[in-house]
Amino acid sequence: MKSLLAGLCGLILLGGCGAVSQAAIADRQVHLQQAHVAPSATSTPKPTRTPLPTPTRTPRPTQTPTPTAVPLLPVLAADAELLDLRLAGVRGSRSGQLLRSEAVADLKALIDAARHDGFELEIRSAYRSYAEQANTFEGWVQYELSSAAQAGKPLSRKQAIANAATYSAKPGTSEHQTGLTVDLLPQGAPEIGFRIPDPLKDWLNANAYKYGWVQSYPIKYRDGELITYELMGYTSEPWHWRWQGRASAKALYDQGYLDTDSLLVPPELPRICDGDHDPCTILSAAPTELVPLPTRTPIAVAE
Fold first, then answer.
1. Which of 191, 237, 289, 303 is catalytic?
2. Residues annotated as region Disordered (predicted)?
3. For 173, 192, 208, 274, which has the most beta carbons within 10 A of its beta carbon?
């Protein structure tokens, strides 16, 4: 062992090393390591997947409200049965006022509820035959003519008819001819120039649907402009209510059809009592005998 160490030392001395510093030894070790370590192959980095964006659901376009969203109108018999409201015990009715039997109980319930809350209602109009509607419409035409003449601004008959048609239906087109519609006013209201006090109007708007009644022509605005006539063909009539069943009326109410800025309007009623002008029959409250309404000759509105 001593001879081996001596030999190594001699080799180092022959190389001119003399006293070898620790730094030199460390430096040589680094070079030796670099000489013997094979260069590692450069690995190709795997491509990084671009994360897919989280899909954003495109909101469905807001649809314009339409009456088709409400339940269907109640299925009614083709042969309408009309009850005399006075005989049926409906408060606020007049003798001879008629309504389809399906709607009578709900009308009575509505009027009784209004009375309980302090409002005495009067049924100004219910079912109208074709002839009655013709007379009603002609009365409004004459009203337009006379009013214009008194104001010194006479109208042609054609213009008077056009004016009357904005608030009164021509014969054959009135909801009153269906036997499902009533005009409700406070007791003692004038015969012309219907007005409903705001408290009663608010009460009807908030409660009528509970009994199956819907306001046919609610007031509507768009950007502050009155558009009731544009939407429904008539000016607003807060006294004009038609029966279409409690489920359908509630659905329409819940969708906000009475909101003044909503375009939702009640669906059109079928013209049940228009075929041959008077297909309906009268059913009194007491007797069971059906009394056919007389068939009347169609009355044209002269232009």
1. 237
2. 36-69
3. 208
Q: Is 302 part of any domain?
A: no
The pLDDT value given to residue 103: 93
* DSSP-assigned beta bridge partners for residue 290: 283
What is the number of structural domains in the chain? 1
Q: Could you tell me if residue 264 is inside a domain?
A: yes
User: What residues make up the domain containing 184?
Assistant: 88-128+174-292
237 is catalytic: yes
Scored b (16 or more CB within 10 A) or e, 22-49 reads eeeeeeeeeeeeeeeeeeeeeeeeeeee
CATH assignment at residue 99: 3.30.1380.10
Residue entry with tokens 């001596």: 6
- Is 183 inside a domain boundary? yes
Q: Which is it for the CA torsion 290, 216, 256, 199, positive or negative?
A: negative
- 159, 108 in Cβ contact below 8 A? no
Nearest to 191 by CA among 128, 129, 234, 140: 140
> Per the structure block, which two tokens stand in for 113?
């509820």
Distances (CA, A) of 179 to 7, 116, 192: 133, 26, 22
Sign of CA dihedral 204, 209, 212, 216: positive
Nearest-angstrom CA–CA distance, 220 and 261: 6
More confident residue, 244 or 202: 202
In tens, the pLDDT along 75-102 reads: 666 566 889 999 999 999 988 899 998 8
Mean pLDDT of 101-112: 95
Closest by alpha carbon to 200, among 184, 215, 211, 213?
184
